[in-house]
Structures are given as C-alpha cells and as structure tokens.
C-alpha cells in the first residue's frame, strides 16, 4: 500500500514538473507581439458629391456664393466635393488627420482643383486622451452645423448665419479640447449610428487662430480667440445636446476683397465677434437642430458706399424624421428654415445680406455607400456690394445630390 502511495506521489511530481517544463519552454519560444509601425495605423476614407440645381428653377439670377456656386445661369452638373481623407492614431497619444478636396474652384471658369481642407495633429495630454491639443488647419469650434461634416448633414449647404463666421469652417491655429472618455464615445456613436452627429470636438473647447479663414495668410498679427461648450446627454430614449460658443478678434478686409470706389477704414481692421446658442434633439426618430447667433462684423453700407462695423444676427431650425424600412434602407424627410441679416466678411466688400429661405427635402440611403438627396428651395436673398446695388433676388428650385461614401 505504501509503495502505491509512493508511486502515485512520484508520478504527480513528474507530471507537474513536466507540465511546468512545457510552460517554461512555451514562454521562452513564444515570439513577443511586434508593435505596429506608424504607417500600419493609417486609414483612408472619403466621399464624393455630385449635384444638379436647375430643375424647376424660376430665377436664373438667384445665386449663393457662400454655398453652392452652381445655382443659377450657366450652372450645370456640378462636383460639389471630392474628399480623400488620411488619418490614424500613430501612437497612443498622437493622432493625425489630412483632408484635401479635389473639387475646389480656382475661379468661376476653372473647376476641380485640389486644395487643403484639414491638416492637423492631436496630441493627448493624458493616457485616455481626454485632454488634447489640436495643432494645424482644422475646423474652428464655433457652431454645431459648422462642425458637422457635409457627409452627414441633411441640408445641401450650411446655413448662412453661422457659416458666415468662418468660410469653409476652418483656419490655422491651436485648439484645446476636453471631454471624458464616456462623452467621447457618445460623440463617435452619434455619427456612427447615422444620427447626424457633429463629431468629437470636445465638451469644452478653447483656442486661438489666425482669423482670416482657411488657406489665407494672417494679416494683422492679432489672433482670434474662440471657446465652446457642448454637452450631449441621454434623457430616456432621447439624446439632446445643448451648446454655447463665442469668438472675438479683428478681421482684415484685404485689397483683393474690395471694389475700387468702396470706402474702407485706413487700417482695414474690423471688429469680428459673435455669440451663438445651439440645441439638438437627435432623430430617434424625430429630430430638431436649431442655432442662432448675434454679433458684430464688417458689412457694406449702400447708403454711404463704405464698409463699416455693423451688428448681425440670424439662425436656422431643421426638423427631421428618421425612418428605416424592412430592408434597412433609411429615409429622412426634413425641413429647414433660415434667416440672416448681416455682412459676409470673406466676400467682396463684406457683402451685405438679408436672407430668408425655406428648404424641404428627403435623404434616401439604400445602402451605406450611397445617398440621394432631393431638396426644394424657396429663397429670398438681398445681397449688395459696391457693384450690386438694390439687388434682391427671389426664386425657387429643385436641387438633387448623389453622394458616394468609401
């Protein structure tokens, strides 16, 4: 009996030792996981938008320089955007993003030039990247619809009121963003789930930028300063996102932006400041998106033939309803009303505007890679500069857009 116990004990020791030998051998022979090289973290995506705006058109003289320049006479099929985006988390705390657009217009007669839209690096301060600095040319954190990618937006063009603050929504600067990890994931999911989110521009943002808008050099060595607070939150089955933002600076109306004969300040520097409020109810299934801003900026005065610092105000409301059918196709009917009274500093003579517009449309997504938008626009636009005096244009048109996502 004793021999049996001794034999069992020896067998147990032998097998456990053999098992440990195998484990130790596996540890010494297993290859360590190789860290990814920076170029293995790069991803590529993009989208293309093709449009036609001449259906049911009632006034070929009605235009929209800020938005789609193929409105009106001589406007045919038009490539609105052709974006190719390179991005990647090249280390735990360094992220890069580069976006050129190959559908930029060098002039009214020269189309489809490549132009840089974004080129920036995010540098995380902490391990979770809840605190980060964005350095380079990127979107200025002012306004929800300005932050919202045109790939996700319902209306075909951004509203005049808030978009007139920053042409092409971008400038060169340094911006600080903060958002808890939970909120950063929510920002991402609102885009990923097709709820028309704005993307992750932080719960709190603060930064400084040149102030002359994207791809234009600084003119006065005085930086613009901007701040924004926007907080998405779930209330029952709904998600809302209230926000507030403001900026201030001095904008230089350059000689290239001024007609011969228009009167202008000697130093060409004009106060440029705004304050805006935002409210978003994400479409689950009914959605509301509303913004309004007030401020001061350069604006052409037809009574004095001069560019002056004047008050401005305006905003928009978009109502939408998200529908999914049995084949997972998505339909989003929407209506947007907008109003703006003020100047547009980046246009000739800081052109003066009075805009009233109603848009009724529907977006159809049969598959993730393709979208079709039809939108009927009823517009009244008074836009005046030194050459365009008493220029009020009213009209209606049916606009179509096909978008390809890849």
Explain how this protein is built.
The chain is built from 4 helices and 18 strands. It starts with a helix and ends with a strand. The chain has one domain: Porin. It has a 16-stranded antiparallel β-barrel. Helix content is 12%, strand content 50%. The chain is globular. It is mainly β.
Task: Give the secondary structure arrangement, pairings included.
Blueprint: H1 2-29, E1 43-55, E2 78-91, E3 94-104, E4 113-124, E5 131-139, H2 144-147, H3 160-163, E6 170-178, H4 181-192, E7 204-209, E8 224-230, E9 233-235, E10 238-252, E11 269-281, E12 286-301, E13 306-321, E14 323-324, E15 330-343, E16 352-367, E17 370-384, E18 392-405
Keywords:
single chain; 406 residues; mainly beta; Porin; 4 helices; 18 strands; 50% strand
- The ordered string of helix (H) and strand (E) elements is HEEEEEHHEHEEEEEEEEEEEE
**CATH architecture descriptor text:** Beta Barrel
Number of domains: 1
Backbone shape: globular
Note the total helix count.
4
Termini distance?
Answer: 76 Å
**What's the pLDDT, averaged over the residues?**
91
List how many beta strands DSSP finds. Answer: 18
Low-confidence stretches: 1-28
Largest sheet: 16 strands, antiparallel, barrel
Give the spatial strand order of the biggest sheet. Answer: 1-2-3-4-5-6-7-8-10-11-12-13-15-16-17-18
Q: What would you report as the Rg, rounded to the nearest angstrom?
A: 27 Å
């Amino acid at each position: 009996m004793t021999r049996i116990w001794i034999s069992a004990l020896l067998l147990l020791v032998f097998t456990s030792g053999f098992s440990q030998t195998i484990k130790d051998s596996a540890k010494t022979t297993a290859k360590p996981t190789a860290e990814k090289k920076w170029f293995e973290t790069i991803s590529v995506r993009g989208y293309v938008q093709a449009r036609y705006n001449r259906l049911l058109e009632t006034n070929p003289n009605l235009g929209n320089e800020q938005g789609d320049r193929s409105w009106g006479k001589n406007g045919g099929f038009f490539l609105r955007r052709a974006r190719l985006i390179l991005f990647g988390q090249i280390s735990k705390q360094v992220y890069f993003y580069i976006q050129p657009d190959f559908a930029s217009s060098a002039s009214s007669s020269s189309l489809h030039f490549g132009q840089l839209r974004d080129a920036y690096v995010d540098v995380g301060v902490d391990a979770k990247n809840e605190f980060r600095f964005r350095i380079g040319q990127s979107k200025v954190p002012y306004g929800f619809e300005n932050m919202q990618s045109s790939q996700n937006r319902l209306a075909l063009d951004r509203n005049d009121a808030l978009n007139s603050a920053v042409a092409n929504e971008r400038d060169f600067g340094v911006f600080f963003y903060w958002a808890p990890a939970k909120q950063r994931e929510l920002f991402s999911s609102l885009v990923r789930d097709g709820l028309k989110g704005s993307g992750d521009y932080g719960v709190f943002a603060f930064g400084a930028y040149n102030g002359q808008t994207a791809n234009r050099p600084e003119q006065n060595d005085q930086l613009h300063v901007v701040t924004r607070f926007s907080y998405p939150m779930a209330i029952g089955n709904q998600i809302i996102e209230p926000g507030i933002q403001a900026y201030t600076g001095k904008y230089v109306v350059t000689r290239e932006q001024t007609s011969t004969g228009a009167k202008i300040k000697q130093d060409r520097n004009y106060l440029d400041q705004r304050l805006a409020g935002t409210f978003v109810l994400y479409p689950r299934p009914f959605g509301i998106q509303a913004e309004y801003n007030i401020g001061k900026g350069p604006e052409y005065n037809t009574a004095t033939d001069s560019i002056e610092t004047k008050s401005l105000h305006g905003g928009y409301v978009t109502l939408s309803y998200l529908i999914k059918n049995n084949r997972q196709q998505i339909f989003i009917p929407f209506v947007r009303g907008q109003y703006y009274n003020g100047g547009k500093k980046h246009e000739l003579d800081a052109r003066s505007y009075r805009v009233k517009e109603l848009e009724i449309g529907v977006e159809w997504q049969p598959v993730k890679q393709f979208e079709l938008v039809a939108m009927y626009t009823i517009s009244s636009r008074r836009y005046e500069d030194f050459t365009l005096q008493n220029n009020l244009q009213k009209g209606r048109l049916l606009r179509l857009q096909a978008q390809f996502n890849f």
